[in-house]
Amino acid sequence: MSSTTPTAVTAGATGGGPEEPRRPGRISLGGMSLNLRASGIYIAFALIVVLFSILTDGALLTPQNISNIIVQNSYILILAIGMILVIIAGHIDLSVGSVVAVTGGLAAVLMVNMSMPWPLAIILTIAAGALIGAWQGYWVAYFGIPAFIVTLAGMLLFRALTLTVLGNQGIGPFPDQVRTLANGFTPGYLGNVGLGPLGGADLFSLLVALAAIAGMVVSQWRTRAARAGYGQDVEPLALFALKMVAGAALIMFLVVQLARFKNLPWVLVLLAVLVLGYSLLANKTVFGRQIYAIGGNLQAAVMSGVKVKKVVFWIFVNMGVLAAVAGIIFAGRLNQAGPTAGNAFELDAIAAAFIGGAAVQGGVGKVVGAITGGLIMAVINNGMSLIGSPSERVMLVKGLVLLAAVAFDVWTKRRAGAAG
Predict the structure, then answer these.
(1) Orientation of helix 96-108 relative to helix 345-355, angle to 10°
(2) What CDD domains does UniProt report for this protein, alphabetically (predicted)?
C-alpha cells in the first residue's frame, strides 16, 4: 500500500494545485502542461497503432481487421474491467482464467446437455460466477488470507472443477442467440448513409457514435469543472479541446470502419455499457471512492469509517460475475466449452490493467485506462501476426511493454517523492 491519504490519491491522479508551475511527471508542450502519467498511455496507444499501420501497409485499420480485434479480445477487455478494480484496492486475482473456463463449461452443460433455455442458463451461470467470487472474497476479506494465495489456489481448484464438469472433453454447439452475442453484429435500423470515399454506414450507428461523443464531452467537461472548483490543477482549455476533438475523431472513425464491414459487434455494445457503468461506479459513487481509499491508504480508510472487509468482498464478487460473462462470451465465440479455455487469461487481464496505468501499490487506475491497456496488447498481437512475427517474438514484445509500463509508474512515483 502507498502511504498517501485517500485525498492525496485523488489529487495525484488528477494533478495538484494550480500554483505549482512544474510538477513531476508533467511536460510542457507549446506552453501547455501535459500530465504524462495520465495521458502517456493514450499517446503510447496512438503511436503503436500508427507504427503497426505503417508496418502492415494499412491492413491493421481495415474495417474487417478492426472488427476482428474487438471480437477476438472482448473477453480479455471484460476481465480487465473487473481486474482494474481489484488492483486499485491493492489486491490481485490469479484465478480469472480458470473461472472463465468453469463458467463456460457450466453454461455448456446447462444449455447443451440439459437443454435449458439460454436466458435462464446465462442467469444461473452469472450467479455461479458471483458465488465463486464470494468464496474467494470471504477468504481474502474476512479470513485475512492474501489475495495472491487465495486466487492462486482458486486457479487450481476451478481448473480441476472445469475438468470435472466437462469430463475432459468439449461441449457444444451453443444456441444461436449466444453465438450471436459473441460473434454477431447489430442489424441496420435506419438505412445506409453514403460517406463518399469512406463508404456507407448505417445511420443508427452514426447516431450512436454522435451520442457517445456528446456524452464524452459533457462528462469530461463536468469533471474538469469540478476539479477546477476544488482548486486542483486542470489542463489548459486548448489542450482539453484538442483531447475532445481527438477522442471524437477516434470514436467516429471506429464506428464508420465497423459499419463498413458488418456494423457494430454486439460484444462492442456490451463493452460500451460495461465501460460506462463501471466508470460511473468508480468515479461517481461512494463505493468507487472507497475502493480508491482502500488501495491508497488502508489505515486512513479504516479511520474514515470505510467498511474495508465489505468493500473487498464485493470487489471479488464483481470479479466473479465479470469472469462468468467473459466465460459465456468466449465459449459462445468458439461455439464450444473446452477444458483448456481461459489459459493465461489472468495474465492478459493483469497486464492490461498495469499497462493502462494501474499502480503496483494500489490506489490508482481507471477503467478506460484498463481498456486502453487491453487494446494495446490486442493491437500488438494482431499487428505482429499480420507481419508474420513468430509467437515467441510476440511474447517478447508484450513482456517488454508490460515491464516498461510498470517501470514508468515507479519512475514517476520516485520523481514525485524526490520533489516532495
Answers:
(1) 130
(2) TM_PBP1_transp_AraH_like
Cell matching residue 28: 510542457
User: Does pLDDT of 194 surpass 80?
Assistant: no
Q: How many CA atoms lie within 13 A of 367 on its CB side?
A: 21
- For residue 397, name the pLDDT band (cuts at 50, 70, 90): confident
Which of 352, 330, 348, 218 minimizes the C-alpha distance to 270?
Answer: 330
Q: Is the pLDDT of residue 111 over 70?
A: yes
Asked if residue 44 belongs to a domain, the reply is yes
Q: Residue 295 belongs to what domain range? A: 6-13+36-184+265-419
Q: Contact, 278 vs 365, CB < 8 A?
A: no
Cell representation of residue 338: 473446452
**The C-alpha cell that represents 320 in the structure block:** 466473479
Q: Which residue has the cell 445511420?
A: 203
Query: In total, how many domains does the chain have?
Result: 1
Q: What is the CATH number of the domain that holds 415?
A: 1.10.3470
Q: Which pTM value belongs to this model?
A: 0.86
Strands 200-202, 26-29: pairing is unpaired
